Amino acid sequence: MIDFCGIELRHPVINGSGTFDAIAARRVFGDQLLDEFPFSAFVSKTITPEPRAGNPPPRLWETPSGLINSIGLPNKGLDGFLADDLPQLAELPVPLIVSVMGTSHDQFALLVEGVGGREEVEAIELNVSCPNVKSGLIVGESPDEARSLLETVRPLTEKPLLVKLTPNVADPVPVAEAAVEGGADSISLINTLRASALAPETGEPWLGGGTGGLSGPAVKAVALARVNAVASTVSVPVVAMGGISTGRDAAEMIGAGASLVAVGTESFRDPAAGSRIAEELAREPARISG
Amino acid sequence: MTAGAAQGLGERVVAPFGRRLCEVTRNLESGGYRIFSALDPVGPMPAAGQFYMLATDSGWGGNEGRPYLARAFSVADAEQQAGGVRLDFLVQAVGPGTTRLTGLEAGEGLWIHGPLGRPFSAPREVAEGAAGAILVGGGIGVAPLAIWRRQLLAAGVPARVLLGFRDRANSGGLDLFDCSEVRLASEDGHTGHRGFVTDLLAVLLEGDDTGTAVVYACGPPAMLEAVRGMCAERGVTCELAMEAPMACGFGACFGCAIPVRSGGFMRLCVDGPVVRGDEIETALVAGSGH
Questions:
Q1: Which residues from A are below 8 Å from B257, CB to CB?
Q2: Average of per-residue pLDDT values in chain B
Q3: Which residue of B has its CA nearest to A28?
């Protein structure tokens, strides 16, 4: 067993937020999903205070060894999540981490209190890849914003707080350090890389949302460098993600200092990829030095 | 769910969890398209209208760039055989994924997950007193109608089949039907009625018995939209098998969202791909065909 912020996990492979809908997957695969659940903890899709429908289609574009998405955080909002989704997610055989995003400290506070007050929830991940409407700054791109957000929400829950960092900054280390100073228990990275695609017929932006985020093996080398930089600086556990599709990829991230790895886009290609990667990781002969 | 378990007409079939490797058993030319078959060792028999995510074992993903994600294909036919369930798919080379699939050779490995999605409904389930079915297919979209016709006939439901093609070079999949029962249209007039398949549908819908039939359609977005409009005008229930760019097929990526009449979006992979005509405002979905 692995101890992650006081939570016991069977293996080091979890899912990236927004890359696996366990409720939909149970409709598709039935209870075999629960018997063979591929992750040692489940991270929910990001929850916002109010319901969101998401971006207009098209939402996806395939690149060489990658995927650009512009989904737009569709979710039922905090009340809908607590009433409809949480009871179903509580039936999963693994600890639950809930991802939340607000556009102000007040919104984040509402979410952290609302989610943190539920015993089904083991930890909370703060998705900070959005602007604070007051300052106009993207929280995850500004050390001051990140520190001040953590100082606001830290007193509101005793549950572990993960901060999910964006890679769309020159250097993620100052943001990670500020989040830890503010009270973050863990840093997770990387979120998707900002990216765009043009329609072949017209040359106009393809994605309904304008731009999107790139994931998949195409971003793994970027993720590895960023994980290494952050993990060698901060004292808290790091959750590494970005293009992990094999046990070798996971071993490299752990060698770079990560405590856990998260699988995202690879699960689209193989719903059980998390289990396969965990098994492959266990067979890796030695950890690779970062 | 065991392989070959009896399913009621139009009942959604649950998929085994994870992807599995199948052996390609044949790949035949068919009117400019290819029909290829794979032996699924663990089944189950799919319901008509359901689909599978397909990726070849070699020459797909990883360091080879594109295709990277699995591709969604409606099952065109399925049969319980020694060693598993034979799955037939109809494919036309239009991009890197379909080009790789058209070149499959017997003995190659094919990764699949499925059956996925919401199938066609039995006529009585969607229209009170409906006794028959009218199947309308266009181009590559004739595929799911072939298995649906077979399942309808096996259940004693009369089905009339109308198929339309652009020209001789794009007229595949007829081999999946018993041609004596099929009425054809072609835009170039090389076979059947010169014009659109919806011309044939208009004639049928003028008949006395339209109130007792449900229309099932699959084809290009413009054809589906024409079918939807004609049926709505005449108060005839229709189900449309649709497509949208899709990364996962099991509700994880939220990429295949289409607008619904009640507001917001539905994920075509778990709430479709078969949708009732009155669930949507339009079948012209941004991004389909890529």
A1: 54, 57, 59, 71, 74
A2: 92
A3: B14
The per-residue pLDDT for range A118-135, each reduced to its tens digit, is 999 999 999 998 777 788
Min Cα distance A162 → chain B (Å) is 22
Q: Which pLDDT band holds residue A287 (cuts at 50, 70, 90)?
A: low
Q: Which residues of B touch A32 (CB under 8 A)?
A: 16-17
Sign (positive or negative) of CA dihedral A107, A109, A113, A115? positive
Our answer to whether residue A130 is catalytic in this structure is: yes
Q: Which residues does residue B53 pair with via DSSP β-bridges, in sequence order?
A: B72, B113
Query: Does position A271 have pLDDT exceeding 90, yes or no?
Result: yes
* CB atoms near residue B3 (< 10 Å): 14
The answer for A 159-198 residues in CB contact with B (under 8 A) is none
Average pLDDT of span A246-269 = 97
Question: Within a 10 A sphere around the Cβ of A75, how many other Cβ atoms?
Answer: 24
- Tell me how close the Cα of A177 comes to any Cα of chain B, in angstroms: 31
